[in-house]
Structures are given as C-alpha cells and as structure tokens.
Amino acid sequence: MKLRVEDMAIAFENKKILEHVSLQVAEGEFVALIGPSGCGKSTLLNILAGVLQAAEGCFYVDDEKVEGISSHFAYMPQSDLLLPWHTILENVTLYGRLHHAKKQAQQQALKEFATFGLAGYEHAYPKELSGGMRQRAAFLRTALCSADILLLDEPFGALDVITRNDMQDWLLTMRKELQKTTLLVTHDIDEALYLADRILILGGSPASIVKEINLHEVVKSRDWLFTQGEQRKEIYSLLRGESHA
Ligand SMILES: Nc1ncnc2c1ncn2[C@@H]1O[C@H](COP(=O)(O)OP(=O)(O)OP(=O)(O)O)[C@@H](O)[C@H]1O
Ligand SMILES: [Mg+2]
Question: Name one Pfam family in it (predicted).
Fold first, then answer.
C-alpha cells in the first residue's frame, strides 16, 4: 500500500513544529526520514499512527483518507516498549492477543523467532535479553502486526555501532522478505544511505522536507557505503545548517 502526506502542520503550545510537510511512499518502497534532534520526526510518526492529531493537512493510504488510529500502520515507537512482566512470546503477540486470537498469534510468532535471532528466548523476560535482542523483539512485534505500512522510529538508535551495523544488515535482508512499505526515522546518515530507497531530509523551523535523495538504482553494500563521502557530507551540512536555523 502507498502512503501520501499532504501539507501537514502541527504546533505545541503555539510553537509550530511541522509545517507544509508533504511526502509520498510508494507501495513496497523503503523511505528514510532524517532530521536533527527535536525537529519533529517522532511527532510526524505519531500523527500517522493516530496518537496525535495534525492541526492542518491530511494523509492517505492508497488514496483513501485516514483519520485517527488505523489498521494500515504497524508502529515501532522510539523506545522498545516491551512489557517487563510479559515473556517475549507474550510481548510479540500483544497485538494478536488484543484481537482475541491468542493461540493463532502465538503459533504464527513462534515460526519467526529463529529468523529474528530470538530462538530459545520465547519464554524469557525482556530483562534477560541484550539491547539488540530487545530491539529485534520489538521489531518482530511490529512485523507480526498484519498492517501494510511499517513506521519505524530509530529502531537501532540505542545500540552500539557494531550491533547497530549487524541489525542494519539483518533489516536489509528482512526487507526483501517483508516487502512492506516502510517509513524509517533515523538521525544516522549511514543508516539512511544503507537501508533506504529514498531519503527525505526534514529541516528548518518549523520543519518541512528540505531535500530528497533517490537511491533506487543503487545495489547496497558496506563497500558502497564507504564510497559515499560526498553524499554523506552533503546530508551532514544540510542537517547541521538546518539545526541552527
Ligand atoms: N506532546 C507534546 N507536547 C509538547 N511538545 C511536544 C510534544 N511532543 C513533542 N514535542 C516537542 O516537539 C518537538 C519535536 O519533537 P519530536 O519528538 O517529534 O522530535 P524528534 O525529531 O523525534 O527528535 P529526536 O531525534 O530527538 O527523537 C520537540 O521540541 C518536542 O519537545
Ligand atoms: Mg524522535
């Protein structure tokens, strides 16, 4: 399914955060949204997920206007939000259980534990997992939600660089299997370059999309990433410039 955001605006306590934000994500496309801290990235995802309401503008899934909480989106918020008193299996099937299909949800989830690098931890509690495993569990929960569009808010933000790179490699592989329309929020330039078909840079105050980088034709690899000095520099100066605006 495709996503279209049109002329979105929101303010908090009379301070405009987002204004004239328009973007599109095509069916199956993976778009990274990058911007300085505090510019409104999570706010935008919260609006799409129906947690917040925009003051202006609207958004469409497959040309149908969406209002409030919609089953089109699977949202992975910035913190992993695993419930500490539930096992990993219970956590990842939370959405399924909310819809009264516990057994079916658990059977489906159990098949995915190995793919997500969580085999053997089905009945462990979140505190027994490493940071990377917790993020994978939160990601599994998001992926199991039978929604068509993934909204990922800095899914690897809290990880050390080695674990983060491993997770990015893993997500690049998963992308092909999941084939889902994805909007990924990150402040990591390399992560955006490595994972995305297209990068949108959010900047200014109030923030809007200031630049778009198309990477559809690129075959991604770590070696390719190492050659992207100029591109990285350009994004960096845009982010830095806008963050001082
Ligand atoms: N519910 C809220 N009430 C008031 N202000 C808010 C609320 N949510 C966000 N803000 C403010 O809006 C701005 C944007 O916040 P947001 O969390 O969207 O930024 P972000 O781009 O996701 O930052 P980061 O990269 O640090 O996660 C910030 O100044 C924040 O303080
Ligand atoms: Mg955020």
Answer: ABC_tran
pLDDT averaged over the chain? 89
50-55's contacts with Cβ under 8 Å and 24+ in sequence apart are 52/10, 54/8, 54/9, 54/10, 54/18, 55/9, 55/10, 55/11
- The yes-or-no verdict on residue 79 having pLDDT over 80 is no
CA 170/CA 136 separation, integer angstroms: 10
- Report pLDDT for 243: 44
Nearest C-alpha to atom 29 of ligand 1 is from which residue?
Answer: 38
The finding on whether 36 has its CB within 6 A of some atom of ligand 1 is: no
Beta strands in 62-171 (DSSP E): 64-66, 73-76, 149-153
Residue 4 Cβ contacting ligand 1 at under 6 Å: no
CB burial class (10 A; 0-12, 13-18, 19+) of residue 232?
Answer: middle
Ligand 1: does its nearest atom lie under 6 Å from the Cβ of 40? yes
- Largest Cα separation within the chain, whole Å, is 52
| Closest to 152 measured CA to CA, from 170, 176, 135, 128 | 135
pLDDT value of position 244: 42
Q: Which atom of ligand 1 has the smallest separation from the CA of 37?
A: 25
108 close to ligand 1 (CB < 6 Angstrom): no
Q: What SS3 state is found at 61?
A: strand
User: Looking at ligand 1, which residue's alpha carbon is closest to its atom 24?
Assistant: 37
For 144-199, what is each residue's pLDDT tens digit? 887 889 999 998 887 788 888 888 888 888 887 778 899 999 989 999 999 999 99
Domains and CATH numbers, the chain: 1-71+183-245 (3.40.50.300)
